[in-house]
Protein backbone atom coordinates (compact mmCIF):
# COMPACT_ATOMS: atom_id res chain seq x y z
CA UNK A 1 0.00 0.00 0.00
CA UNK A 2 1.33 3.43 -0.94
CA UNK A 3 -0.60 5.26 1.82
CA UNK A 4 0.03 4.97 5.57
CA UNK A 5 -1.50 6.76 8.55
CA UNK A 6 0.42 7.18 11.81
CA UNK A 7 -0.62 8.99 14.99
CA UNK A 8 1.46 11.34 17.13
CA UNK A 9 0.95 14.37 19.39
CA UNK A 10 1.75 18.07 19.06
CA UNK A 11 2.59 20.42 21.92
CA UNK A 12 0.02 23.15 22.52
CA UNK A 13 0.29 24.61 26.02
CA UNK A 14 -0.59 21.93 28.55
CA UNK A 15 -2.68 20.16 25.92
CA UNK A 16 -1.37 17.59 23.45
CA UNK A 17 -3.67 17.53 20.43
CA UNK A 18 -3.59 14.49 18.17
CA UNK A 19 -1.66 14.84 14.89
CA UNK A 20 -2.30 12.41 12.06
CA UNK A 21 0.74 11.80 9.87
CA UNK A 22 -0.39 10.79 6.37
CA UNK A 23 2.37 9.44 4.14
CA UNK A 24 1.70 8.91 0.45
CA UNK A 25 4.08 7.45 -2.14
CA UNK A 26 3.42 8.25 -5.78
CA UNK A 27 5.17 8.05 -9.12
CA UNK A 28 7.31 10.97 -10.21
CA UNK A 29 10.70 12.45 -9.58
CA UNK A 30 12.10 11.38 -6.16
CA UNK A 31 11.41 14.06 -3.56
CA UNK A 32 9.97 14.49 -0.09
CA UNK A 33 7.61 17.31 0.86
CA UNK A 34 5.95 18.04 4.21
CA UNK A 35 2.68 20.00 4.42
CA UNK A 36 0.42 20.88 7.32
CA UNK A 37 1.87 24.11 8.73
CA UNK A 38 5.33 22.76 9.62
CA UNK A 39 7.96 25.09 11.04
CA UNK A 40 11.65 24.99 10.20
CA UNK A 41 12.57 22.20 12.64
CA UNK A 42 9.81 20.00 11.20
CA UNK A 43 10.81 20.70 7.60
CA UNK A 44 14.35 19.66 8.44
CA UNK A 45 13.09 16.28 9.64
CA UNK A 46 13.11 14.97 6.03
CA UNK A 47 16.92 15.00 6.09
CA UNK A 48 17.09 13.40 9.53
CA UNK A 49 14.57 10.72 8.59
CA UNK A 50 16.31 9.87 5.30
CA UNK A 51 19.68 9.35 6.99
CA UNK A 52 18.14 7.46 9.92
CA UNK A 53 16.38 5.01 7.60
CA UNK A 54 19.44 4.39 5.46
CA UNK A 55 21.77 3.97 8.47
CA UNK A 56 19.27 1.57 10.04
CA UNK A 57 19.54 -0.66 6.94
CA UNK A 58 16.09 0.20 5.62
CA UNK A 59 15.31 1.21 2.05
CA UNK A 60 14.45 4.85 1.45
CA UNK A 61 11.86 4.86 -1.38
CA UNK A 62 13.07 6.52 -4.58
CA UNK A 63 9.60 7.94 -5.21
CA UNK A 64 7.63 11.12 -4.69
CA UNK A 65 6.80 11.22 -0.96
CA UNK A 66 4.13 13.56 0.36
CA UNK A 67 3.68 13.88 4.11
CA UNK A 68 0.63 15.66 5.53
CA UNK A 69 0.50 16.63 9.20
CA UNK A 70 -3.17 17.04 10.05
CA UNK A 71 -4.92 19.16 11.19
CA UNK A 72 -3.44 21.67 8.78
CA UNK A 73 -4.23 24.74 10.92
CA UNK A 74 -2.29 23.52 13.99
CA UNK A 75 1.32 24.82 14.11
CA UNK A 76 3.89 22.01 14.26
CA UNK A 77 7.34 22.61 15.74
CA UNK A 78 10.31 20.61 17.01
CA UNK A 79 11.67 17.21 16.14
CA UNK A 80 8.97 15.23 17.97
CA UNK A 81 7.38 14.08 14.66
CA UNK A 82 10.54 12.38 13.28
CA UNK A 83 9.70 8.89 14.53
CA UNK A 84 6.10 9.02 13.29
CA UNK A 85 7.24 10.21 9.84
CA UNK A 86 9.85 7.43 9.59
CA UNK A 87 7.31 4.76 10.61
CA UNK A 88 4.85 6.18 8.07
CA UNK A 89 7.40 5.93 5.25
CA UNK A 90 8.26 2.34 6.21
CA UNK A 91 4.58 1.38 6.32
CA UNK A 92 3.72 3.11 3.04
CA UNK A 93 6.62 1.36 1.30
CA UNK A 94 5.59 -2.05 2.68
CA UNK A 95 8.64 -2.60 4.88
CA UNK A 96 6.45 -2.93 7.98
CA UNK A 97 2.71 -3.81 8.11
CA UNK A 98 0.44 -0.75 8.16
CA UNK A 99 -2.41 -2.60 9.92
CA UNK A 100 -0.64 -2.58 13.31
CA UNK A 101 -0.31 1.21 13.59
CA UNK A 102 -3.89 2.14 14.49
CA UNK A 103 -3.53 1.60 18.24
CA UNK A 104 -0.06 3.08 18.72
CA UNK A 105 1.27 6.65 18.90
CA UNK A 106 4.89 7.62 18.28
CA UNK A 107 6.90 10.55 19.67
CA UNK A 108 10.63 11.02 19.33
CA UNK A 109 13.43 12.82 17.51
CA UNK A 110 15.74 10.80 15.25
CA UNK A 111 19.49 11.11 15.07
CA UNK A 112 21.21 10.50 11.74
CA UNK A 113 22.29 7.09 13.04
CA UNK A 114 18.71 6.04 13.77
CA UNK A 115 19.06 6.60 17.53
CA UNK A 116 16.04 8.02 19.33
CA UNK A 117 16.32 11.23 21.33
CA UNK A 118 13.95 12.53 23.95
CA UNK A 119 11.79 15.63 23.50
CA UNK A 120 10.21 18.18 25.84
CA UNK A 121 6.56 18.06 26.80
CA UNK A 122 6.14 14.31 26.38
CA UNK A 123 4.20 13.78 29.64
CA UNK A 124 1.08 15.75 28.57
CA UNK A 125 1.16 13.71 25.36
CA UNK A 126 1.32 10.47 27.38
CA UNK A 127 -1.69 11.54 29.45
CA UNK A 128 -3.71 12.40 26.33
CA UNK A 129 -2.63 9.16 24.68
CA UNK A 130 -3.89 7.11 27.63
CA UNK A 131 -7.23 8.92 27.54
CA UNK A 132 -7.63 7.99 23.88
CA UNK A 133 -6.99 4.30 24.62
CA UNK A 134 -3.78 3.99 22.58
CA UNK A 135 -0.30 2.86 23.62
CA UNK A 136 2.77 5.07 23.20
CA UNK A 137 6.34 4.53 21.99
CA UNK A 138 8.94 7.12 23.03
CA UNK A 139 12.70 7.43 23.35
CA UNK A 140 14.33 5.80 26.37
CA UNK A 141 15.36 9.28 27.52
CA UNK A 142 11.66 10.00 28.15
CA UNK A 143 10.86 6.61 29.70
CA UNK A 144 11.00 7.68 33.35
CA UNK A 145 8.82 10.70 32.67
CA UNK A 146 6.21 8.79 30.65
CA UNK A 147 6.13 6.05 33.30
CA UNK A 148 4.54 8.50 35.74
CA UNK A 149 1.30 8.23 33.76
CA UNK A 150 -0.02 4.87 34.98
CA UNK A 151 -3.09 4.98 32.70
CA UNK A 152 -0.97 4.81 29.54
CA UNK A 153 0.73 1.66 28.23
CA UNK A 154 4.11 3.01 27.18
CA UNK A 155 7.30 1.60 25.68
CA UNK A 156 10.81 3.06 25.54
CA UNK A 157 13.11 2.40 22.58
CA UNK A 158 16.75 3.26 22.01
CA UNK A 159 16.61 3.40 18.22
CA UNK A 160 14.46 2.95 15.13
CA UNK A 161 15.43 -0.71 14.76
CA UNK A 162 14.01 -1.54 18.20
CA UNK A 163 10.74 0.18 17.31
CA UNK A 164 10.39 -1.79 14.08
CA UNK A 165 11.31 -5.08 15.81
CA UNK A 166 8.52 -4.40 18.32
CA UNK A 167 5.97 -3.60 15.59
CA UNK A 168 6.82 -6.77 13.62
CA UNK A 169 6.78 -8.90 16.82
CA UNK A 170 10.42 -9.95 16.33
CA UNK A 171 11.53 -8.50 19.67
CA UNK A 172 8.92 -6.90 21.89
CA UNK A 173 9.76 -3.85 23.98
CA UNK A 174 9.09 -4.06 27.71
CA UNK A 175 6.32 -1.92 29.16
CA UNK A 176 7.55 1.09 31.13
CA UNK A 177 6.71 0.59 34.81
CA UNK A 178 5.61 3.32 37.20
CA UNK A 179 8.56 4.46 39.32
CA UNK A 180 7.79 7.71 41.12
CA UNK A 181 10.81 9.87 41.96
CA UNK A 182 11.79 9.96 45.59
CA UNK A 183 10.76 12.92 47.70
CA UNK A 184 13.13 15.58 48.92
CA UNK A 185 15.96 14.57 51.19
CA UNK A 186 17.31 16.88 53.84
CA UNK A 187 14.52 19.37 53.29
CA UNK A 188 14.73 22.69 55.16
CA UNK A 189 12.97 22.24 58.49
CA UNK A 190 11.34 24.73 60.84
CA UNK A 191 13.30 23.11 63.63
CA UNK A 192 16.32 25.04 62.36
CA UNK A 193 14.60 28.40 62.92
CA UNK A 194 15.21 29.93 66.34
CA UNK A 195 12.61 32.30 67.72
CA UNK A 196 10.27 34.07 65.24
CA UNK A 197 7.27 32.31 66.75
CA UNK A 198 4.86 34.92 65.41
CA UNK A 199 6.14 34.46 61.84
CA UNK A 200 6.05 30.65 62.16
CA UNK A 201 2.46 30.83 63.34
CA UNK A 202 1.58 33.03 60.36
CA UNK A 203 3.16 30.56 57.94
CA UNK A 204 1.23 27.72 59.58
CA UNK A 205 -2.01 29.65 59.01
CA UNK A 206 -0.96 30.37 55.41
CA UNK A 207 -0.23 26.69 54.73
CA UNK A 208 -3.46 25.53 56.38
CA UNK A 209 -5.72 27.78 54.29
CA UNK A 210 -3.64 28.29 51.12
CA UNK A 211 -3.24 32.02 51.85
CA UNK A 212 -0.75 34.48 50.36
CA UNK A 213 1.66 36.08 52.82
CA UNK A 214 4.01 39.07 52.98
CA UNK A 215 7.01 39.00 55.34
CA UNK A 216 8.63 42.36 56.04
CA UNK A 217 11.45 43.28 58.36
CA UNK A 218 15.12 44.33 58.55
CA UNK A 219 17.83 42.41 56.66
CA UNK A 220 19.06 39.22 58.30
CA UNK A 221 15.93 38.50 60.34
CA UNK A 222 15.23 35.19 58.57
CA UNK A 223 12.56 36.09 56.01
CA UNK A 224 14.09 33.96 53.25
CA UNK A 225 14.85 31.18 55.71
CA UNK A 226 11.22 31.09 56.83
CA UNK A 227 9.81 31.23 53.30
CA UNK A 228 11.99 28.36 52.04
CA UNK A 229 10.54 26.11 54.75
CA UNK A 230 6.90 26.65 53.88
CA UNK A 231 6.72 23.60 51.51
CA UNK A 232 7.87 21.38 54.39
CA UNK A 233 4.63 22.02 56.31
CA UNK A 234 2.28 21.85 53.31
CA UNK A 235 0.35 18.62 52.69
CA UNK A 236 1.87 16.23 50.12
CA UNK A 237 0.44 16.59 46.63
CA UNK A 238 -2.14 14.12 45.41
CA UNK A 239 -1.24 11.78 42.54
CA UNK A 240 -3.20 13.92 40.06
CA UNK A 241 -1.62 17.15 41.35
CA UNK A 242 1.88 15.69 41.06
CA UNK A 243 1.12 14.71 37.48
CA UNK A 244 -0.01 18.27 36.70
CA UNK A 245 3.13 19.77 38.22
CA UNK A 246 5.45 17.36 36.42
CA UNK A 247 3.62 17.97 33.11
CA UNK A 248 4.24 21.72 33.37
CA UNK A 249 7.92 21.16 34.14
CA UNK A 250 8.10 18.75 31.18
CA UNK A 251 7.00 21.53 28.80
CA UNK A 252 10.06 23.54 29.86
CA UNK A 253 12.42 20.60 29.61
CA UNK A 254 12.80 20.26 33.38
CA UNK A 255 12.76 16.93 35.17
CA UNK A 256 10.81 17.48 38.37
CA UNK A 257 12.28 14.81 40.62
CA UNK A 258 10.40 15.47 43.84
CA UNK A 259 7.16 13.51 43.42
CA UNK A 260 4.27 14.75 45.62
CA UNK A 261 6.40 17.57 47.08
CA UNK A 262 4.96 21.08 46.48
CA UNK A 263 7.27 23.02 44.16
CA UNK A 264 9.15 26.09 45.39
CA UNK A 265 10.09 28.74 42.85
CA UNK A 266 12.30 31.73 43.68
CA UNK A 267 12.79 34.01 40.64
CA UNK A 268 15.28 36.88 40.84
CA UNK A 269 13.91 40.41 41.03
CA UNK A 270 15.37 41.17 37.59
CA UNK A 271 12.97 38.65 35.99
CA UNK A 272 10.82 39.98 33.16
CA UNK A 273 7.06 39.66 32.93
CA UNK A 274 7.47 36.90 30.31
CA UNK A 275 9.77 34.95 32.63
CA UNK A 276 7.23 35.32 35.42
CA UNK A 277 3.95 34.52 33.65
CA UNK A 278 5.19 32.71 30.52
CA UNK A 279 5.20 33.49 26.82
CA UNK A 280 7.65 33.60 23.94
CA UNK A 281 7.19 32.89 20.23
CA UNK A 282 6.37 29.30 21.22
CA UNK A 283 4.66 30.04 24.55
CA UNK A 284 6.12 28.23 27.54
CA UNK A 285 5.02 28.28 31.18
CA UNK A 286 6.50 30.96 33.42
CA UNK A 287 7.48 30.88 37.07
CA UNK A 288 3.88 31.19 38.30
CA UNK A 289 2.91 28.02 36.40
CA UNK A 290 6.05 26.18 37.52
CA UNK A 291 4.90 27.02 41.07
CA UNK A 292 1.47 25.44 40.44
CA UNK A 293 0.23 23.67 43.62
CA UNK A 294 3.27 25.07 45.40
CA UNK A 295 4.98 28.29 46.48
CA UNK A 296 6.12 31.31 44.49
CA UNK A 297 8.62 33.26 46.58
CA UNK A 298 9.37 36.84 45.55
CA UNK A 299 12.25 38.14 47.63
CA UNK A 300 12.86 41.91 47.73
CA UNK A 301 9.34 42.51 46.38
CA UNK A 302 9.68 46.30 45.76
CA UNK A 303 12.77 45.66 43.60
CA UNK A 304 10.65 43.92 40.96
CA UNK A 305 9.50 46.15 38.12
CA UNK A 306 6.02 47.56 38.70
CA UNK A 307 4.61 46.19 35.43
CA UNK A 308 6.01 42.76 36.27
CA UNK A 309 4.19 42.64 39.60
CA UNK A 310 0.92 43.87 38.11
CA UNK A 311 0.61 40.81 35.87
CA UNK A 312 0.19 38.72 39.04
CA UNK A 313 -3.15 40.28 39.91
CA UNK A 314 -5.36 38.17 37.65
CA UNK A 315 -3.72 34.74 38.22
CA UNK A 316 -3.82 35.34 42.00
CA UNK A 317 -7.60 35.48 41.70
CA UNK A 318 -8.31 32.96 38.93
CA UNK A 319 -5.47 30.43 39.27
CA UNK A 320 -4.97 30.53 35.48
CA UNK A 321 -2.79 32.66 33.18
CA UNK A 322 -3.97 33.44 29.65
CA UNK A 323 -1.30 34.06 26.99
CA UNK A 324 -2.41 35.53 23.66
CA UNK A 325 -0.26 35.38 20.56
CA UNK A 326 -0.96 36.00 16.88
CA UNK A 327 -1.11 32.27 16.15
CA UNK A 328 -2.93 31.02 19.24
CA UNK A 329 -4.31 31.73 22.69
CA UNK A 330 -3.02 29.42 25.41
CA UNK A 331 -3.77 29.01 29.10
CA UNK A 332 -1.50 27.58 31.78
CA UNK A 333 -2.54 26.64 35.33
CA UNK A 334 -1.18 28.95 38.04
CA UNK A 335 -2.77 27.98 41.37
CA UNK A 336 0.11 28.98 43.66
CA UNK A 337 0.70 30.48 47.07
CA UNK A 338 2.50 33.80 46.94
CA UNK A 339 5.13 34.40 49.61
CA UNK A 340 6.73 37.84 49.36
CA UNK A 341 9.50 39.40 51.42
CA UNK A 342 10.62 43.00 51.67
CA UNK A 343 12.43 45.48 53.86
CA UNK A 344 10.30 48.08 55.67
CA UNK A 345 12.23 50.95 54.05
CA UNK A 346 15.00 51.53 51.47
CA UNK A 347 17.84 51.14 53.99
CA UNK A 348 16.01 48.23 55.64
CA UNK A 349 16.34 49.22 59.31
CA UNK A 350 13.09 51.09 60.01
CA UNK A 351 11.79 48.45 62.44
CA UNK A 352 15.20 47.29 63.68
CA UNK A 353 15.61 46.99 67.45
CA UNK A 354 19.41 47.07 67.20
CA UNK A 355 21.33 49.65 69.23
CA UNK A 356 24.09 49.66 66.62
CA UNK A 357 24.31 53.09 65.00
CA UNK A 358 24.97 51.48 61.62
CA UNK A 359 21.64 49.64 61.84
CA UNK A 360 19.44 52.66 62.46
CA UNK A 361 17.06 53.91 59.80
CA UNK A 362 18.23 57.01 57.93
CA UNK A 363 15.35 57.19 55.45
CA UNK A 364 13.03 60.17 55.21
CA UNK A 365 9.26 59.77 55.32
CA UNK A 366 9.10 60.61 51.62
CA UNK A 367 11.66 57.91 50.77
CA UNK A 368 9.73 55.32 52.79
CA UNK A 369 6.44 56.21 51.11
CA UNK A 370 8.00 56.12 47.64
CA UNK A 371 9.56 52.74 48.42
CA UNK A 372 6.28 51.21 49.59
CA UNK A 373 4.31 52.68 46.69
CA UNK A 374 6.28 50.41 44.36
CA UNK A 375 3.75 47.80 45.45
CA UNK A 376 0.30 48.78 44.21
CA UNK A 377 -2.73 48.74 46.46
CA UNK A 378 -4.63 46.16 44.36
CA UNK A 379 -1.71 43.72 44.59
CA UNK A 380 -1.24 44.29 48.33
CA UNK A 381 -4.99 43.78 48.75
CA UNK A 382 -4.65 40.25 47.35
CA UNK A 383 -2.11 39.24 49.99
CA UNK A 384 -3.97 37.83 53.00
CA UNK A 385 -1.28 38.00 55.68
CA UNK A 386 1.18 40.84 56.37
CA UNK A 387 3.65 39.76 59.02
CA UNK A 388 6.45 41.72 60.63
CA UNK A 389 9.68 39.75 61.15
CA UNK A 390 11.81 41.48 63.81
CA UNK A 391 15.43 41.12 64.78
CA UNK A 392 16.20 38.51 67.41
CA UNK A 393 17.84 39.28 70.71
CA UNK A 394 20.92 37.42 71.93
CA UNK A 395 18.78 35.47 74.39
CA UNK A 396 16.44 34.34 71.61
CA UNK A 397 19.37 33.25 69.43
CA UNK A 398 20.91 31.30 72.30
CA UNK A 399 17.60 29.64 73.05
CA UNK A 400 18.11 27.27 70.16
CA UNK A 401 21.50 26.11 71.36
CA UNK A 402 20.37 25.63 74.95
CA UNK A 403 16.93 24.21 74.33
CA UNK A 404 16.93 22.99 70.76
CA UNK A 405 13.92 20.75 71.38
CA UNK A 406 11.73 23.83 71.85
CA UNK A 407 11.97 24.51 68.13
CA UNK A 408 9.01 22.61 66.70
CA UNK A 409 9.85 20.42 63.67
CA UNK A 410 8.02 20.79 60.36
CA UNK A 411 6.46 17.33 60.69
CA UNK A 412 4.49 18.32 63.80
CA UNK A 413 3.28 21.54 62.17
CA UNK A 414 2.31 19.69 58.99
CA UNK A 415 0.08 17.33 60.93
CA UNK A 416 -1.96 20.29 62.19
CA UNK A 417 -2.06 21.76 58.67
CA UNK A 418 -3.33 18.48 57.21
CA UNK A 419 -6.00 18.24 59.93
CA UNK A 420 -7.19 21.79 59.10
CA UNK A 421 -7.21 21.05 55.36
CA UNK A 422 -9.25 17.90 56.00
CA UNK A 423 -11.89 19.98 57.81
CA UNK A 424 -12.03 22.43 54.90
CA UNK A 425 -12.45 19.78 52.21
CA UNK A 426 -15.17 18.01 54.18
CA UNK A 427 -17.01 21.32 54.57
CA UNK A 428 -16.59 23.00 51.18
CA UNK A 429 -14.28 20.76 49.01
CA UNK A 430 -11.61 23.46 48.62
CA UNK A 431 -9.13 25.55 50.61
CA UNK A 432 -10.43 28.56 52.50
CA UNK A 433 -8.37 30.88 50.28
CA UNK A 434 -10.27 29.61 47.19
CA UNK A 435 -13.76 30.31 48.55
CA UNK A 436 -15.98 32.59 46.47
CA UNK A 437 -17.98 35.38 48.14
CA UNK A 438 -21.15 33.30 47.94
CA UNK A 439 -19.42 30.25 49.43
CA UNK A 440 -17.88 32.42 52.13
CA UNK A 441 -21.29 33.66 53.25
CA UNK A 442 -22.66 30.11 53.25
CA UNK A 443 -19.82 28.20 54.90
CA UNK A 444 -18.28 30.90 57.12
CA UNK A 445 -21.14 32.79 58.79
CA UNK A 446 -20.25 35.42 61.40
CA UNK A 447 -22.12 36.07 64.65
CA UNK A 448 -23.33 39.53 65.60
CA UNK A 449 -20.36 40.20 67.91
CA UNK A 450 -17.87 39.07 65.28
CA UNK A 451 -19.51 41.25 62.61
CA UNK A 452 -19.31 44.26 64.90
CA UNK A 453 -15.63 43.60 65.70
CA UNK A 454 -14.56 43.26 62.09
CA UNK A 455 -16.73 46.25 61.11
CA UNK A 456 -14.93 48.51 63.59
CA UNK A 457 -11.57 47.24 62.34
CA UNK A 458 -12.45 47.95 58.72
CA UNK A 459 -13.50 51.51 59.56
CA UNK A 460 -10.32 52.12 61.54
CA UNK A 461 -7.96 50.54 59.00
CA UNK A 462 -9.83 51.70 55.89
CA UNK A 463 -9.92 48.24 54.33
CA UNK A 464 -11.60 47.31 51.05
CA UNK A 465 -14.35 44.74 50.52
CA UNK A 466 -11.75 42.31 49.17
CA UNK A 467 -9.66 42.75 52.33
CA UNK A 468 -12.79 42.12 54.43
CA UNK A 469 -13.47 38.81 52.70
CA UNK A 470 -9.83 37.76 53.02
CA UNK A 471 -9.80 38.52 56.76
CA UNK A 472 -12.87 36.31 57.19
CA UNK A 473 -11.13 33.52 55.24
CA UNK A 474 -8.05 33.77 57.45
CA UNK A 475 -10.24 33.77 60.57
CA UNK A 476 -11.95 30.62 59.34
CA UNK A 477 -8.56 28.97 58.82
CA UNK A 478 -7.54 29.88 62.37
CA UNK A 479 -10.83 28.38 63.59
CA UNK A 480 -10.11 25.19 61.62
CA UNK A 481 -6.64 24.93 63.17
CA UNK A 482 -8.21 25.05 66.61
CA UNK A 483 -11.00 22.66 65.50
CA UNK A 484 -13.61 25.28 66.38
CA UNK A 485 -17.06 24.77 64.76
CA UNK A 486 -17.49 28.52 64.19
CA UNK A 487 -15.52 31.75 63.91
CA UNK A 488 -15.06 33.47 67.27
CA UNK A 489 -13.80 36.88 68.43
CA UNK A 490 -10.33 35.50 69.12
CA UNK A 491 -10.06 34.17 65.56
CA UNK A 492 -11.08 37.54 64.12
CA UNK A 493 -8.60 39.30 66.39
CA UNK A 494 -5.71 37.05 65.33
CA UNK A 495 -6.62 37.45 61.65
CA UNK A 496 -6.57 41.24 62.02
CA UNK A 497 -3.25 41.02 63.85
CA UNK A 498 -1.79 39.15 60.90
CA UNK A 499 -2.62 42.00 58.52
CA UNK A 500 -0.80 44.89 60.16
CA UNK A 501 0.86 46.28 57.01
CA UNK A 502 -2.46 47.99 56.20
CA UNK A 503 -2.17 50.20 59.27
Please write out the topology.
Layout: E1 3-9, E2 18-26, E3 31-35, H1 40-43, H2 45-55, E4 64-70, H3 82-92, E5 104-106, E6 109-110, E7 116-117, H4 122-131, E8 135-139, H5 143-146, E9 154-157, H6 160-167, H7 197-209, E10 213-216, H8 223-228, H9 239-251, E11 264-265, H10 273-277, E12 278-279, E13 284-285, H11 287-290, E14 295-298, H12 306-310, H13 313-318, E15 320-324, E16 329-333, E17 337-342, H14 365-372, H15 377-381, E18 385-388, H16 394-402, H17 410-428, H18 437-443, H19 448-461, H20 465-481, H21 489-497
Parallel strand pairs: 3-4, 5-8, 8-9, 10-17, 10-18, 11-14, 14-17
Antiparallel strand pairs: 1-2, 2-4, 6-7, 12-13, 15-16
Structural class: alpha/beta
Low-confidence stretches: none
Helix content range = 25-40%
Largest sheet: 5 strands, parallel
* Total strand segments: 18
Query: In total, how many domains does the architecture comprise?
Result: 3
- Span of the ends, CA to CA: 78 Å
Write down the Rg: 28 Å
Full CATH superfamily name of the largest domain: P-loop containing nucleotide triphosphate hydrolases
Amino acid sequence: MSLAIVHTRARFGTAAPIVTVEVHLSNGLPCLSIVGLPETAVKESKDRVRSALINSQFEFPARRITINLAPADLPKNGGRFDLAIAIGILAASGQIPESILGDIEFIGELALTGELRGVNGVLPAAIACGESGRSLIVAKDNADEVGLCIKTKSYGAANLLEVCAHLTAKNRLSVIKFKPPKGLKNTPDFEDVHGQFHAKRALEVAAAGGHNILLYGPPGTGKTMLASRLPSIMPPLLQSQSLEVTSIHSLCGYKYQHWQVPPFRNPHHTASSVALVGGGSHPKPGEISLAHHGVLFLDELPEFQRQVLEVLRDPLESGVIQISRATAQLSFPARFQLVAAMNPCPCGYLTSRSTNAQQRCTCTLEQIQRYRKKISGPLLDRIDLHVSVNSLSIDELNLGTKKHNENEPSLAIRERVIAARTIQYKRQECNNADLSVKQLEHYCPLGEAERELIGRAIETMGLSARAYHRIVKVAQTIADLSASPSIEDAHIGEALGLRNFDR
